[in-house]
Design brief:
Number of domains: 1
Oligomer: single chain
Helix content: 55-70%
Largest sheet: none
Shape: elongated
Radius of gyration: 18 Å
Number of strands: 0
Strand content: under 5%
Structural class: mainly alpha
């Protein structure tokens, strides 16, 4: 399970970094570093940039905007899915795809008392 989450995360960030690097070449100083940083930040939905104007200079660049938007969505979906799978694994639940074998998971003891947002 952890391998799947890590593979998905690193794969998404790497593909996003490649797309951003292609767009940043010739536009920014150290485009590879900028691409990796912004891909990881977008996947984590961090909302910050190394550039003084954030990414506003690329507001008309479809490639940059598409890469960032896709990374934000994939990062949000990955976070939800990995948390669901972790809770299910801790609770000993089955698979929701098998009818009758799945019941809503109970929280792990390490997650007890945490709010839904945290």
């Amino acid at each position: 399970m952890i391998r799947l989450v890590l593979t998905f995360t690193v794969g998404c960030e790497a593909l996003g970094a490649l797309g951003l690097w292609l767009a940043f070449r010739g536009e920014l100083e150290r485009p590879a570093w900028q691409a990796v940083f912004h891909a990881v930040a977008a996947f984590a939905n961090a909302g910050f940039s190394l550039l003084p104007d954030n990414l506003s200079r690329f507001r008309g660049d479809l490639a940059v905007n598409a890469a960032v938007m896709i990374l934000i969505v994939l990062g949000g979906l990955a976070s939800w899915r990995s948390r669901t799978c972790c809770v299910r694994a801790c609770a000993g639940g089955g698979s929701p795809s098998t009818p009758g074998s799945w019941s809503p998971p109970r929280p792990c003891s390490s997650w007890a008392g945490r709010s839904a947002s945290g």
